From TrEMBL, chain A:
<dbReference type="Pfam" id="PF07810">
    <property type="entry name" value="TMC"/>
</dbReference>
<keyword id="KW-0472">Membrane</keyword>
<feature type="transmembrane region" description="Helical">
    <location>
        <begin position="604"/>
        <end position="628"/>
    </location>
</feature>
<feature type="transmembrane region" description="Helical">
    <location>
        <begin position="187"/>
        <end position="205"/>
    </location>
</feature>
<dbReference type="GO" id="GO:0050910">
    <property type="term" value="P:detection of mechanical stimulus involved in sensory perception of sound"/>
</dbReference>
<feature type="transmembrane region" description="Helical">
    <location>
        <begin position="547"/>
        <end position="568"/>
    </location>
</feature>
<dbReference type="InterPro" id="IPR038900">
    <property type="entry name" value="TMC"/>
</dbReference>
<feature type="transmembrane region" description="Helical">
    <location>
        <begin position="355"/>
        <end position="375"/>
    </location>
</feature>
<comment type="similarity">
    <text>Belongs to the TMC family.</text>
</comment>
TrEMBL record, chain B:
<feature type="domain" description="EF-hand">
    <location>
        <begin position="144"/>
        <end position="179"/>
    </location>
</feature>
<dbReference type="InterPro" id="IPR018247">
    <property type="entry name" value="EF_Hand_1_Ca_BS"/>
</dbReference>
<dbReference type="Pfam" id="PF13499">
    <property type="entry name" value="EF-hand_7"/>
</dbReference>
<feature type="domain" description="EF-hand">
    <location>
        <begin position="99"/>
        <end position="134"/>
    </location>
</feature>
<dbReference type="GO" id="GO:0000287">
    <property type="term" value="F:magnesium ion binding"/>
</dbReference>
<dbReference type="InterPro" id="IPR002048">
    <property type="entry name" value="EF_hand_dom"/>
</dbReference>
<dbReference type="GO" id="GO:0005509">
    <property type="term" value="F:calcium ion binding"/>
</dbReference>
<protein>
    <submittedName>
        <fullName>Calcium and integrin binding 1 (calmyrin)</fullName>
    </submittedName>
</protein>
<dbReference type="InterPro" id="IPR011992">
    <property type="entry name" value="EF-hand-dom_pair"/>
</dbReference>
Length: 765, 183
């Protein structure tokens, strides 16, 4: 009975691995039907006796599970959006351009989840269960601004009704619980704000880990350059003749380059000049980075002065100066860096990395300068707020004392002022939120405009003016644009950084970003297909994917810092937002712990935040990091040792074989091909003969005598066949038999040694 | 046993799902594309001739298209025609979820231009010529070609017999970072 069961299991396993066998479909189909028939017949038989029903039930559930899994996988694949669009782009432009769109789609998914959090847990409760517009001061447009609150220009500036809406922090009320469900809005706001970072961090690191362990072995630089170029350089997803031509040209160039590289390894002419030029280039770039940072700081300071003037007298340019300057810098500096980088004469791949690093530094510098300038503004607002707050409190006290002295009661109703007339503080959080939203919007506008003008208009001009122009516009100067992958990816990453920073102060920003990514996908797909041409050097999108993820992670950390800092140190405004009236924003967590949770949890938290407990925990984590680091170093060393051993074994093998003449003369019998079990060259198996080998394997090395391997001496030669003999298609002259061990001193037979050989059969052992 | 019926039978579909790396939608899409190739021809044909297969946009620009057809074809006349099952085999080997073994096995056979089970100098030369395009100015000079082939053999030929056989090929390919991505 058990052997039958084993056989059934074996057949099931065979069915599961059938797709991995390189046989023809006909043969596999036949085998599958056989195995399935066998399993069905005997599975029923196995279920005889007691427990039969249970067994049959289990089997049925297992089958249903498999079917369900398969359907679910199918469904998941069908759910992935834009797959066909991206494949079309890929076939025209190669996989590197398509990788940008795949990245864009991934971002869209991430933002969708963040939007769901923000919307479902913060915006929706406030809208459905909170007080409506106009009921309390923070939700109403102040009287002074009311007559202009609906103007388009004001709305586009995110003032007026926009400012006092769910889009921004200031709208949210600070009641501890709202509505029938007793939903704790302030707590939810804080937790969602931090949870956005937590979730993004988790997703980014998980994606990085998944990418990294597939590319981990690729560090063998230089070991197989030519072979890789030969065997793996073609991009099979190319479906467009023009791209194919470009790919041919780039492959040829890379072949020629490597051949030349290999020959001229020692040539390093004039290294001093090159070094000097590189230092000069770096100096120039540092200057321009510093210049751009200073420019931004200056402009933000000016905008603060403008804010103090009357808004009507400022031109559009002066009002939006900051965003305009930042976008301009983002447009102008990268080409500038590229031209300066031509002084350096690096290898293109290295040059690309430098370029990306510099653009990254540019964006980062700009963003942080902007933040610092904004920070000054926040401090100024805080100062102003103090005075207004004092004024409000004083006014309220006056009112109470007057009322009680006039009416002589102690039961004083709250002052009956219309919400729009109440004195309002400057509410710095909303101001910060507005700044971020304006920055994002202007970034969107600049990107779309650039595509429209830089690509579309250019393509139109080149196409239509070409008929009446002196030189060939398509081949010559402007020609059609190429898709700038790195620029677009970096733009996407930094846009996401701004969203992360601004989401806490402007909950509507995430929704805005989702819309932006959606339209971007369609717009850029259209633009790429209609206005761009494939790159001159079509290169495959390979391990660079982790590079961009690493950048994203860095940007995530850098955008986390300002938000956490403000949460921890700056006091919230006294009259707007969900944390108003509290000393610090995180106090809401303390209040919740005190009031809502049972007492012992409060005790737990008090103990847990005791420094005596935290310091050892931190110490433990540091030690764990150190330990893991040491372990990974050890593994790396062990890897290197193994590689060296393999190399030595291979060299030994080479030395032995070098004296022997041999030839591969075995024809592959395609139908009888058995899967190759091991891909490694043999470690040290030269001495002991391997056991019975796969049937049909024949030693190609007729020259090997049986005794050779057994003796371990590698010298004997039998020059039966010369190296120059062509490899004939041998007819089957004898049935396959167990091979002599001699020819197969290395574990798996060298590839084509399956099938029938010709010539004298190898002497058996 | 390739089917030319306009609909694919349900159990046949599930068997194909079991035996290939393709999902159900992919198999149905393959069936549709295959039927389109057949549609202008006689309905009774069970295999599509090579020229029609090569007219597929995905294969049209591929330098190895003829080799691909030859490798996946099971026809007795060795004319490169593909039945539907051959077509599915092709798609399965090229699919994203196929394993390293399958891909390297078929890659080796595609590159083996003379079908002798090894990649010798002639095969490699034809390979390079396929990769560098048809026009004169993109081809390599004989000197460069010789240098290139000797470099490749030096890198990949472990037993120094002047040819690359399947296990050497698989060894090289398994180290390639691009290849491992799908593995």
């Amino acid at each position: 009975m058990t052997s039958l069961k084993e056989e059934v299991e074996e057949k099931k396993k065979l069915i599961a691995t059938l797709r991995n066998k390189p046989w023809r479909m006909k043969r596999r189909l036949k085998l599958l039907k056989e195995c399935q028939a066998f399993v069905e017949e005997f599975e029923g038989a196995l279920g005889k006796g007691k427990g039969r029903k249970l067994y049959a039930y289990k089997v049925m559930m297992a089958k249903k599970m498999i079917k369900f899994n398969r359907d679910f996988d199918n469904f998941k694949t069908a759910c992935i959006p834009w797959e066909r669009k991206i494949k079309e782009v890929e076939s025209h432009f190669g996989s590197s351009v398509a990788s940008y769109f795949i990245f864009l789609r991934w971002m869209y998914g991430l933002n969708l989840v963040l939007f769901a959090f923000m919307f479902g847990l913060v915006v929706l409760p406030e809208v459905m269960m909170g007080l409506p517009y106009g009921s309390i001061p923070r939700k109403t447009v102040p009287r002074a601004e009311q007559d202009r609150a609906m103007d388009i220009s004001v709305l586009l500036d995110f003032g007026g009704y926009c400012k006092y809406s769910i889009l921004f922090y200031g709208f949210y009320n600070d009641e501890r619980t709202i509505g029938v469900l007793q939903f704790r809005l302030p707590l939810s706001y804080l937790l969602v704000g931090l949870g956005i970072f937590g979730y993004s961090l988790m997703v980014v690191i998980r994606t990085m880990a998944r990418n990294s362990d597939e590319g981990g072995d690729g560090g063998d630089d230089g070991q197989f350059t030519f072979a890789f170029k030969m065997f793996t350089s073609w991009d099979y997803l190319i479906g467009n003749p023009e791209t194919a031509d470009n790919k041919y040209a780039s492959i040829t160039t890379s072949f020629k380059e490597s051949i030349v590289d290999e020959q001229e390894n020692q040539k390093d002419e004039n290294i001093h000049l090159r070094r000097f030029l590189r230092v000069l280039a770096n100096f120039l770039i540092l200057c321009s980075l510093g210049g751009s940072g200073f420019l931004i700081y200056f402009v933000v300071k000016r905008s603060q002065e403008f804010a103090n003037l009357d808004q009507d007298e400022l031109s559009w340019f002066e009002k939006n100066e900051v965003e305009f300057v930042m976008s301009l810098l983002g447009l102008v500096c990268p080409p500038l860096f590229e031209t300066i980088a031509e002084l350096e004469e690096y290898h293109p791949r290295i040059a690309l990395k430098w370029q990306l690093g510099r653009i990254f530094a540019l964006f980062l510098g700009n963003l942080y300068t902007f933040l610092f300038a904004l920070f000054d503004e926040v401090n100024a607002k805080l100062e102003k707020e103090k005075s207004i707050r004092n004024a409000t409190i004083w006014g309220l006290n006056e009112y109470y004392s007057n009322y009680s002295s006039y009416h002589n009661t102690t039961d004083i109703p709250p002052p009956d002022i219309h919400p729009a007339d109440v004195i309002r503080g400057p509410c710095w959080e909303t101001a910060v939120g507005i700044e971020f939203v304006k920055l994002t919007v202007s970034d969107i506008q600049v990107t779309y405009m650039t595509i429209l003008i830089g690509d579309f208009l250019r393509a139109m001009i080149v196409r239509f003016l070409n008929y009446c122009w002196c030189w060939d516009l398509e081949a010559g100067f402007p020609s059609y644009g190429e898709f700038d992958i790195s620029g677009n990816v970096l733009g996407l990453i930094f846009n996401q950084g701004m969203i992360w920073m601004g989401a806490f102060y402007a909950p509507g920003l995430v929704g805005l970003n989702v819309l932006r990514l959606l339209t971007s996908m369609y717009y850029q797909c259209w633009a790429v297909m209609s206005c761009n041409v494939p790159h001159e050097r079509v290169f495959k999108a390979s391990k660079s994917n982790n590079f961009y993820m690493g950048l994203l992670l860095l940007v995530l950390f850098l955008s986390l810092l300002p938000v956490v800092y403000t949460i921890m140190t700056l006091p919230p405004s006294f009259d707007c937002g969900p944390f108003s009236g509290r000393e610090q924003m995180y106090n809401v967590v303390m209040e919740t712990i005190e009031n809502d949770l049972p007492a012992f949890i409060g005790n737990i938290f008090t103990y847990a935040t005791n420094p005596g407990l935290i310091l050892p925990a931190v110490l433990l984590m540091v030690l764990a990091i150190y330990y893991l680091n040491a372990t990974s170093k050890n593994y790396q060393n062990a890897n290197l040792e193994l590689k060296k051993k393999m190399q030595m074994a291979r060299d030994e093998e080479k030395n032995r074989r070098n004296n022997k003449e041999n030839t591969n003369q075995v024809m592959q019998d395609l139908e009888d091909l058995l899967p190759n079990r091991s891909l490694l060259p043999p470690a040290a198996e030269e001495e002991k003969p391997p056991p019975v080998l796969e049937k049909g394997s024949k030693s190609p090395k007729v020259a090997k005598r049986p005794g050779a391997a057994a003796n371990g001496k590698g010298v004997n030669i039998q020059k039966d066949v010369s190296l120059a003999a062509p490899n004939p298609k041998a007819a089957v002259t004898h049935p396959p038999g167990p091979r002599g061990p001699s020819g197969n001193a290395r574990g798996p037979p060298p590839g084509p040694a399956r099938g029938r050989g010709r010539g004298t059969p190898p002497s058996r052992r | 046993m390739g089917t030319t019926a306009s609909q694919l039978g349900k159990d046949l579909l599930s068997e194909y799902q079991e035996l290939t790396f393709l999902t159900k939608q992919e198999i149905l899409l393959a069936h549709k594309r295959y039927s389109e190739l057949l549609s202008k021809e006689d309905r009774n044909l069970t295999s599509v001739p090579m020229e029609k297969v090569l007219s597929l946009p995905e294969l049209k620009s591929n330098p190895f298209r003829k080799r691909i057809c030859h490798v996946f074809s099971t026809s007795d006349m060795k004319d490169g025609s593909l039945t539907f099952e051959d077509f599915l085999d092709l798609l399965s080997a090229f699919s994203d979820s196929a394993t390293l073994e399958i891909k390297s096995h078929y890659a080796f056979r595609i590159f083996d231009f003379d079908d002798d089970g090894t990649l010798d100098g002639g095969d490699l030369e034809k390979l390079v010529n396929c990769l560098t395009g048809k026009t004169e100015d993109t081809r390599l000079t004989p000197e460069e070609m010789r240098q290139l082939i000797s470099n490749i053999l030096e890198e990949s030929d472990i037993d120094k017999d002047g040819t690359v056989n399947l296990s050497e090929f698989q060894h090289v390919i398994s180290r390639s970072p691009d290849f491992v991505r799908d593995g």
